[in-house]
Structure formats: C-alpha cells, structure tokens
Amino acid sequence: MYYIPIIAGSTRRDRQSIKVARFVLARLRSREGISTELLDLLEYNFPIMEERLHRRDDPPPRLQEFGDKIGRADSFIIVSPEYNNGYPGVLKNALDYLLPEYERKPVGIVTVSAGGFGGITCLAQLRLVTIGMGAFPIPENLSVSHVHDTFQEDGTPNDTAYEKRAAVFLDEVLWFTEAIATQKARKKSA
Predict the structure, then answer these.
(1) Shortest CA distance to 34 belongs to which of 64, 76, 95?
(2) Which residues of 107-132 are buried (b: 16+ CB within 10 A; e: fewer)?
(3) Which CATH superfamily is domain 2-189 in?
(4) DSSP three-state, residue 62
(5) How confident is the model over 58-114, as pLDDT tens digits?
(6) Which helix (H) or strand (E) holds 71?
(7) Bridge partners, residue 81, by sequence
(8) How far apart are CA 82 and CA 125, in angstroms?
(9) Full 3-state SS string of 83-149
C-alpha cells in the first residue's frame, strides 16, 4: 500500500483551494492500494521557520508529526492557490521546515485560481521549489480555473470535466509513485 498525503497549502480566510483539496482527497481515497490524508496547514499553524526540523531539538508543535508523515510518504500532492502570481507564504514556510523527507519523492501539483489561468505561474514556481527540495515534480498537473464557480464547498465539481482530468492526474501520480518505489526497493535489496 502506498501512502500519499495531500498538503492543503493555504490558510487564508474563505480559501477556495480547500474545496479542490477535498475533491482530490476523495478521488485518491477511491483508489485501491492507497492510504491518504489531508495535511491542512490551517490545522498545523507553524510559526515562521527558524531552522529545519532535522536540525532542531525543540520543534514547534506538530512539526515532528508533519515531518514524519512526509518522511514516510511514497509521494505527496500539493494543492495550492495562486496569489499574486505565486504560491502562499505559509506553504513555502511549511515546505522549508523539511528537506531530507522529500528526497527522491514524486510530487503532484494541483493549482487553483479565481481567474481563468488555473494557477500556471504558481505551478511553474512550485515545480522549481520541489526540484530544489530533492523531490520529483511529475509532468502532469491539475489546474483549476474559476474555482468559485467550478467546485462546491464539499469538493464536488460543478464541471464534470474535472473528474476526467483528476483521473489522468492521479494515474500519473500513481505511475511515478510505483516507479520510484520499485527503484528504491531494488536499491535496498542490492
């Protein structure tokens, strides 16, 4: 069984990206052989990073829990809104706390925008950041435009096209998860 947590990357009031995170969570839970959960940064409430987790003996509350979950993950998914052509500072702060936990892990990126471009600038930036963390951003992505109109609060899409797009995205997340896990297992047994 693969463990693939989903990071909800916004803590903003009236955040819309949480709808999409719930959607992705529900679709991933319906897949066999997958264990997943939502790691909502609103619930973690990390202070501004002073030092990475692996260099601290006094981590902020719940940081060790968050780090352990990312550390044991086979891959992970980030769901992020685009704010001012970038991603939220709270997401960068949370990501920066960790480093060895990301090594050689596939990461799927879901971006959300209120406008018509689906967060493509945010996507490009997150790809660069995840490479810098030692992770592998997968080529496929899921971008959501006009999120206020396209998703209900519980994560139900108003546009059925997102069902097919999410299926393609999750198929790719799982392909890369299995490919990297297989390679890691081969290295361990050698």
Answers:
(1) 76
(2) bbbbbbbeeeebbebbbebbbebbee
(3) Flavodoxin domain (3.40.50.360)
(4) coil
(5) 999 999 999 999 999 999 999 999 999 999 999 999 999 999 999 999 999 999 999
(6) helix 63-72
(7) 112
(8) 10
(9) ECCECCHHHHHHHHCCCHHHCCCEEEEEEECCCCCCCHHHHHHHHHHHHHCCCEEEEEEEEECCHHH
On the question of pLDDT at 22 being above 80, the answer is yes
Structure tokens, 116: 């018509």
Domain boundaries, the chain: 2-189
Residue 110 contacts by C-beta under 8 Å, 6 or more apart in sequence? 20, 21, 24, 77, 78, 79, 80, 141, 142, 143, 144, 169
The structure tokens listed for 33 are 């052989």
Please enumerate in sequence order all residues whose Cβ is within 8 A of that of 188, keeping only pairs 6 or more positions apart, or say none: none
154 touches 22 (CB < 8 A):
yes
